[in-house]
Amino acid sequence: MSRFFVGITGASGHIYSEALLQGLTAQGHQVDLAATPAGCLVLRHELGVEAGEAGELLDQALVPWLGEECASRIHAYPSNAVGAPPSSGTALTGASILCPCSMGTMARVRAGYSSNLVERVADVALKEGRPLVLVPRETPLSEIHLENMLELTRMGAICLPAMPGFYHHPQSIEDLIQHLIGKLFDRLGLEYQAGARWAGLQELTEESTQFSEGAGSP
Fold it and tell me: Are 178 and 19 in contact (CB under 8 A)?
């Protein structure tokens, strides 16, 4: 099993980070976790999780938030612990995932401005050539946002915006969440069973067959 880093920032969409942590640990992976100060505020607002000012209470919040089994595979660090093991290039992290990723964090990662553990880990992933997945949740996107995503993609990061599909006929918010987590797991090369996969449109398949059979006709 691998070890992953998950960074929680001040963007909306912490229900995605919750599903991500549950999905990774359910497969037996170990997770290093940190939340920025803004991430702690939004985590409290959206999910009612009390992580402190800079994530110093996050470790205590894991069991009531995620359950004992999930929490046992997670090691939480305060975001100001810039000397924590995940901050080093010698830490063999399988991938670093910022979910959700605020536009402020994205801008600082692009500039190499490591003001906290989350940004430092992202910087390490880029310099070591390891997978870095950024899950922004913002709309509309300004030119600055688009430029930052383009530059980070050129640097080797994976920008995976929280844009769930609807072709699988979701019946609940959970279906939309799992669809996105499935996309993320695909990019990490991890198995994923919860999300529906595209099977094609029958009517388009039939139309394509008819067109193929009639190829060459005027």
Answer: yes
Neighbours of 104 (CB within 10 A): 15
Q: Determine the distance from the C-alpha atom of residue 51 to the mean position of all C-alpha atoms in its chain, rounded to a whole number.
A: 19
Q: Is 1's pLDDT higher than 90?
A: no
**CA nearest neighbour of 126 among 137, 110, 115:** 110
Q: What is the mean pLDDT of the chain?
A: 91
Q: Of the candidates 14, 61, 9, 56, which has an alpha carbon nearest to the alpha carbon of residue 35?
A: 9
Calpha distance 92→101 (Å, rounded): 22
**Residue 216: what pLDDT?**
47
Listing from the earlier edge strand, what are the strands of the sheet with 3-8?
74-78, 30-35, 3-8, 95-101, 132-136, 158-159
Cα dist. 164→1, 137, 140, 180, 196 in Å?
A: 28, 11, 16, 5, 12
All structural domains of the chain = 3-213 (3.40.50.1950)
Q: How far is C-alpha 185 from the chain's CA centre?
A: 9
Neighbouring residues of 49: CB distance < 8 A, sequence distance ≥ 6: 14, 43, 61, 65
Residue whose pair of structure tokens reads 């599909």 in the numeric block: 165
Q: Which tens digits make up the pLDDT trace of 179-196?
A: 999 999 999 999 887 656
